[in-house]
């Protein structure tokens, strides 16, 4: 039996609900954008977001460290320790992303004409500062929401995400018809600022902090977290670069129209895939705690997550491939053959990639991140080299097949390598019960 105070079942259920609402948000937002500016408008947004995301290279991984270190300790007997970890993580993360957002905007603003082209330059210039503000608020909210999850309140985290997405949907309906892509950027600012404030109120109450904003920076906690966070960051950067790199390649070799179709196809499959994987990831705090308190329970819980992820993603992907002509008609007003082709090709990569998602989380649970880093770098190199070759010498559509193949390689490789950690966890359990 899993201890009830870890809230495993509620965390998984509400994580799935949160991603379901997020899927609705993306669908509505892109439908409104297409109605106003066409597929190229989606391409502009996707390209800007891809380049903006590159500033995460400077992230030191404090969000993951905050979640893990808070989850490892008992709230009743180690409250002050948990408070030190959480407040230190929030302060560090917000300061870092504030600096990264300022620097990223200064650099990207000088390259905007080259990246977007003259036709959409003025619109992109208006959007860019708001996108960077939204990016800062998103990452600030993420570390506070991670703190909520680290307190084994993942279901509360998911509830906040649901409410935040509903708020953004409402803002999108109002702002996008009036301001286009700029309205979408402001809708994200509204969403993430609200989520950050409410999440901090919850965390503040739970950890007994009297500060209106986090002030309890602890240098000993920072040093302890930094060792894990730097390893985690190597994983985050190498993993987080896949999506922007793929979009940059498509934008460069295929143009903004193809980039728009690629973005729609990517979101069609990747968001439902993430909805399933969010349920798997909701187990991270529980697995982390069990690894410390009852390691023998880790392997069977992991194996259940693998079966769940594989079957659910397979069923969803097959359904979406079959429904892609209808989705295309709803989004674009006609059946776009390239979109349905992209969805079919992506489905193969997404299903094989999902096989490795539970194993990917094992590295976070155990703190042994080397395999994640190695595999992510392998995938990025494969994508970069094969993508440039495909884009240079083959029809632009071949690029999508390269991206799907890279996804598949990553999932299979991480599953093969990280499942050795299951044996390690089992050995810990055997020793603990001797």
A few lines on this structure:
The protein contains 16 helices and no strands. With 434 residues, it is mainly alpha-helical.
What does this protein structure show overall?
With 434 residues, this protein is mostly helical. It has 2 domains: 1-227, no CATH class; 241-434, no CATH class. 85% of the residues lie in helices and 0% in strands. The chain has 16 helices and no strands. It has helices at 8-37, 39-53, 62-72, 79-116, 121-150, 154-179, 181-207, 219-240, 242-281, 284-293, 298-332, 337-354, 357-366, 370-393, 398-418, 420-432. The longest helix has 40 residues, at 242-281. The chain is globular. The two termini are 20 Å apart. 51% of the residues are buried.
């Amino acid at each position: 039996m899993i201890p009830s105070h870890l809230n495993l079942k509620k965390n998984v259920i509400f994580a799935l609900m949160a991603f379901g609402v997020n899927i609705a948000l993306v669908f509505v937002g892109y439908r409104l954008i297409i109605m106003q500016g066409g597929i190229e408008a989606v391409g502009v947004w996707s390209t800007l977001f891809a380049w903006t995301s590159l500033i995460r290279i400077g992230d030191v991984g404090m969000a993951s460290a905050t979640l893990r270190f808070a989850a490892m300790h008992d709230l009743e007997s180690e409250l002050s320790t948990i408070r030190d970890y959480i407040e230190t993580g929030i302060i560090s993360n917000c300061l870092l992303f504030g600096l990264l957002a300022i620097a990223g905007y200064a650099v990207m603003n000088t390259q905007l004409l080259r990246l977007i082209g003259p036709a959409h330059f003025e619109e992109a210039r208006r959007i860019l500062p708001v996108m960077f503000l939204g990016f800062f608020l998103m990452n600030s909210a993420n570390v506070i929401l991670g703190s909520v999850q680290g307190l084994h309140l993942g279901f509360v985290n998911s509830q906040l995400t649901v409410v935040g997405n509903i708020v953004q949907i409402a803002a999108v309906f109002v702002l996008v018809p009036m301001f286009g892509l700029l309205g979408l950027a402001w809708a994200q600012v509204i969403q993430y600022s609200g989520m950050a404030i409410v999440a901090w109120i919850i965390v503040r109450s739970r950890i007994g902090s009297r500060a209106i904003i986090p002030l309890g920076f602890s240098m000993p906690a920072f040093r302890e977290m930094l060792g894990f966070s730097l390893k985690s960051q190597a994983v985050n950067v190498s993993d987080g670069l896949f999506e922007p790199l793929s979009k940059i390649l498509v934008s460069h070799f295929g143009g903004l129209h193809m980039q728009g179709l690629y973005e729609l196809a990517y979101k069609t499959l990747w968001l439902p895939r993430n909805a399933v994987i969010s349920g798997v990831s909701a187990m991270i705090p529980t697995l982390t705690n069990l690894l410390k308190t009852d390691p023998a329970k880790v392997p069977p819980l992991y194996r259940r997550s693998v079966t769940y992820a594989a079957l659910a993603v397979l069923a969803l992907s097959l359904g979406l491939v079959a429904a892609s002509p209808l989705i295309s008609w709803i989004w674009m007003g006609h059946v776009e053959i390239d979109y349905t082709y992209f969805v079919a090709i992506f489905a193969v990569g997404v299903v094989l990639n999902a096989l490795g998602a539970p194993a990917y989380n094992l590295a976070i649970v155990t703190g042994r991140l080397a395999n994640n880093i190695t595999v992510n770098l392998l995938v990025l190199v494969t994508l970069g080299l094969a993508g440039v070759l495909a884009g240079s010498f083959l029809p632009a559509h071949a690029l999508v097949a390269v991206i799907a193949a890279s996804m598949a390689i990553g999932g299979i490789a991480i599953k093969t390598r990280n499942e050795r950690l299951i044996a390690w966890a089992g050995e810990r359990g055997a020793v603990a019960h001797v």
